[in-house]
Amino acid sequence: MKILVTATSLNPDLPNPALEQLNRFADRVIFNPHGRPLAEDELIPLLEGCEGYIAGLDFITKKVIEQSAALRVISRYGAGVDRLDLEAAREKGIRVCNTPGVNAQAVADLTLALLLSVARKVPFLDRNTREGRWTRSTGLELYGKTIGILGLGAIGKAVAKRAAGFSMNIMAYDPYLDKTYANAQGIIAADFDAVVTAADFLCLHLPLTAETRHIISGKVMKTMKKGAVIVNTARGGLIDEQAAYELLQSGHLGGLGIDVYEEEPPNQSPLFTLDNVVLTPHTASHTVEATAAMAALSVQNLIDVLSGRDCPYIVG
């Protein structure tokens, strides 16, 4: 049995219990030769003869799926499936599974790190101090401010718990919001517009779908409080980056913290030129603990499907 592993955090040269389990299960395991998410024309030859595939953030198109004759399961190393043609996989009888929730604490940590970094201009001040400039800068406090959370799943809930530690007022929108949970945690459940317009800090934790692409449009951002801060650790396509740039430049938006981009890696984005923007390279889930958990579950999911056992994390 041949298996392809493309998740860049799964390094075959480093000790990893999950990969050791996979090597015991499979006859042959091959790895991503490029160290980055793979495009259609790169995936097709690698998937030849593979029955299983542990996928990173690759672009798994209909063409990829149609030309992978032996493929039986795609196990996502992570939760998102927006780069995967689920309908094509269903039509071909390929099972798709993911690892929801296991990276929630890691992503929530980086969300708060970006909030604080933007609010207190940490990278800007660090850079100036290193360069010999003793800059005086006035930042924003999180204490007593309103945080709006779009998407109250595992990550959104973890962010809310951290925000409570800063004595923030917490509002949340989610089309499937658990109101009993929200009430118990002191979270104000509200509709999308109410959360966006009330937020001093807006955090995005929604999946990327046709309906949510550019959900944070220029029009929506103009309804936000002057000086509000947005943080996105979910998917880049949720924000219209060009509109965000213009509103950051004008001063309507106070700051932006992003870990994800419309184009990855971003190519000379105008956002790079702004001091009120903090950027990280799609690294929110990259902690020792989260990568170990995602590796273990993605491998177990794949083995369960290929062994004919029930897998509770099937998404397609």
Describe this protein with a few key phrases.
single chain; 12 helices; Rossmann fold; 35% helix; 12 strands; alpha/beta; 316 residues; 16% strand; seven-stranded parallel beta sheet; globular
Helix/strand layout:
Layout: E1 2-5, H1 17-25, E2 28-31, H2 40-46, E3 52-55, H3 62-66, E4 73-76, H4 86-92, E5 95-97, H5 104-119, H6 122-130, E6 146-150, H7 154-165, E7 169-173, H8 179-184, E8 188-189, H9 192-198, E9 201-204, H10 218-222, E10 228-232, H11 241-250, E11 253-258, E12 277-279, H12 288-306
Parallel strand pairs: 1-2, 1-3, 3-4, 4-5, 6-7, 6-9, 7-8, 9-10, 10-11, 11-12
Helix pairs in contact: 1-12, 5-7
What report would you give on this structure?
The structure is a single chain. With 316 residues, this protein is an alpha/beta fold. It has twelve helices and twelve strands. It has helices at 17-25, 40-46, 62-66, 86-92, 104-119, 122-130, 154-165, 179-184, 192-198, 218-222, 241-250, 288-306, and strands at 2-5, 28-31, 52-55, 73-76, 95-97, 146-150, 169-173, 188-189, 201-204, 228-232, 253-258, 277-279. Strand 4, helix 4 and strand 5 form a beta-alpha-beta unit.
